[in-house]
Design brief:
10 helices, alpha/beta, Rossmann fold
Length: about 250
């Protein structure tokens, strides 16, 4: 027991030294707005929930999804449901970018909900966001039914196997989605999700890409310019994304 505690404390110390402290310190020298990417110009905080903040501030966070977001016909969606919303990068960002859009954001942590609420207020979109706590399949079904044509964004650290189930949330068969998949939790997860949605969706697998260069729009203090690789590092495991597009309107 003592050895486990000591090892945990050592791991915690390494995390603070390598990630938490540099993230906090470097963020102080960046503008309080997203500098590039799909949410360029959005006011942002200098802290994050469940992820690192620096890639969000410079605009390279989940850069792999930028072409997907750019290609979406957002005018066709009247509602977005964001499950695992954190401090609100997508929930607030999509409302900031698309003034017609309404959002239901699920975030299980009280700290994340507090930060999301503050970020939404800072960007004047709070009135279009319904903030909720822990998401269950039943709660997801109710949320999706609130829209004529919803878009689903999900990042739930492995719980996607439970939530992405049309048997318990049947509106999923008529819902476009972008989900982050965590195969380290279940190596068969991609196969399970694909089997459930292949009859109703066109599925695109989006893999992680190396971050080599900063976007041209990013302006950094001189002492941070040599740390571009660190600023863009999201400290990820072997995750990837699935983008599901409904093949035809489903009768529910």
């Amino acid at each position: 027991m003592l050895n486990r505690l000591i090892n945990h404390l050592r791991w915690r110390r390494r995390m603070i030294q390598r990630i938490y402290w540099p993230q906090f310190w470097y963020a102080l020298f960046l503008p309080g707005r997203v500098q590039s990417g799909p949410f360029s110009g959005m006011r942002y905080s200098r802290t994050a929930t469940g992820s690192v903040v620096l890639p969000k501030l410079i605009g390279t966070y989940e850069r792999e999804l930028h072409p997907v977001l750019a290609a979406l016909n957002m005018a066709a969606y009247d509602l977005c449901v964001d499950v695992g919303a954190g401090e609100g990068y997508y929930a607030v960002g999509l409302c900031y970018r698309h003034p017609h859009l309404h959002m239901i954001a699920f975030e299980s942590t009280a700290r994340g909900r507090k930060r999301l609420r503050a970020l939404a207020h800072k960007n004047s979109v709070l009135e279009r966001i319904s903030l909720r706590g822990h998401c269950t399949p039943a709660a997801l079904q109710v949320a999706l039914q609130a829209g004529r044509r919803p878009l689903l964004i999900m990042d739930v650290e492995g719980a996607e196997e439970i939530l992405l189930d049309p048997e318990v949330a049947p509106t999923l068969v008529a819902t476009d989605f972008i989900v982050e998949v965590h195969p380290e939790r279940n190596e068969r997860l991609e196969q399970i999700i694909s089997r459930r949605f292949e009859p109703t969706h066109r599925l695109e697998r989006i893999s992680q890409q190396a971050r080599k260069t900063l976007p041209g729009a990013v302006c950094l203090p001189r002492f941070l310019q040599a740390k571009a690789a660190y600023l863009m590092d999201e400290f990820r495991g072997p995750q990837f994304w699935l983008h599901g597009t409904v093949l035809a309107v489903q009768a529910l």
